[in-house]
């Protein structure tokens, strides 16, 4: 893990938090528990990102 | 885009998120027939779309475009095909339904599709050229030649003889 990857992970965590807040209504409207819809999208994006990072581990740009 | 840049991974994360989001939405409809309850005139619009089978078409299109975007196959084509549905969702959620949650999900949809289109827009750089000659898709390799955008009749790479010599 180099600096670029850590920055990317941090940004993706912020995007995940934003999507969570937006979907659940946390802090701004009546709370609704997170849906499977969102959980599947979170799982797909994070598993995919981890796969891409592992795939790129030994590669030079 | 180099994989040394954080953008490379951020764009892929967003692509995977948007793809999975579309896939789930489309497959859920195909498997269960689930249609969200939308209040007011927005709900009437969705029902009218269902009555003329446009809603069903868009849901099945979501499966196709979601798979294209998620599995990174014909990603740009998937993003372009999905864009009309995205604009529809954005408009409906943001300005018509406009409940607090929809005020988030409407712009979110446009942000995801729009940001991804921007991230892949280098592949359609020609749209930014003010003057273009017609070019069939199957002659697309000509787009990568330096003189593209000039008059085709002047290009020695396309035709060996001048058009004017054939007309006369």
Can you characterise this structure?
The complex is a heterodimer of chains A (61) and B (168). Chain A is mainly alpha-helical and 61 residues long. Chain A has one domain (3-55). Chain A is 69% helix and 0% strand. Chain A contains two helices and no strands. Chain A has helices spanning 3-24, 36-55. The longest helix of chain A has 22 residues, at 3-24. The mean pLDDT of chain A is 93. By secondary structure, chain B is mainly α. Chain B folds into two domains: 6-128, no CATH class; 132-168, no CATH class. Helices cover 62% and strands 0% of the residues of chain B. Chain B contains six helices and no strands. The relative contact order of chain B is 0.10. Chains A and B meet through helix 1 and helix 2 of A and helix 1 and helix 5 of B.
Notable characteristics:
heterodimer, A: mainly alpha, 2 helices, elongated, B: mainly alpha, 2 domains, 6 helices, 62% helix
> Biggest sheet of chain A: strands, sense, closure?
none
Strand coverage percent of chain A: under 5%
The average pLDDT of chain A is: 93
Q: Overall 3D geometry of chain A? A: elongated
Q: How large, in whole angstroms, is the Cα Rg of chain A?
A: 15 Å
**Broad structural category of chain B:** mainly alpha
Q: What is the count of structural domains of chain A?
A: 1
């Amino acid at each position: 893990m180099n600096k670029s990857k850590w920055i990317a992970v941090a940004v993706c965590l912020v995007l995940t938090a934003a999507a969570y807040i937006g979907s659940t209504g946390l802090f701004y409207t009546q709370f609704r528990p997170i849906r499977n819809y969102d959980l599947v999208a979170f799982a797909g994006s994070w598993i995919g990102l981890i796969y891409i990072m592992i795939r790129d581990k030994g590669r030079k740009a | 885009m180099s994989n040394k840049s954080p953008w490379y991974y951020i764009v892929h994360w967003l692509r995977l998120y948007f793809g999975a989001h579309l896939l789930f939405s489309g497959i859920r409809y195909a498997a269960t027939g689930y249609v969200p309850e939308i209040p007011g005139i927005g709900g009437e619009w969705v029902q009218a779309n269902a009555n003329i089978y446009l809603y069903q078409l868009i849901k099945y299109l979501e499966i196709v475009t979601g798979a294209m975007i998620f599995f990174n196959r014909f990603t740009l084509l998937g993003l372009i095909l999905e864009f009309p549905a995205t604009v529809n969702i954005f408009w409906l959620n943001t300005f018509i339904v406009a409940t607090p949650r929809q005020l988030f999900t409407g712009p979110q949809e446009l942000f995801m599709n729009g940001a991804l289109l921007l991230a892949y827009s280098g592949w359609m750089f020609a749209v930014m050229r003010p003057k273009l000659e017609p070019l069939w898709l199957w002659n697309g390799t000509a787009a990568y030649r330096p003189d593209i955008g000039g008059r085709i009749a002047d290009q020695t790479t396309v035709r060996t003889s001048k058009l004017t010599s054939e007309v006369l």
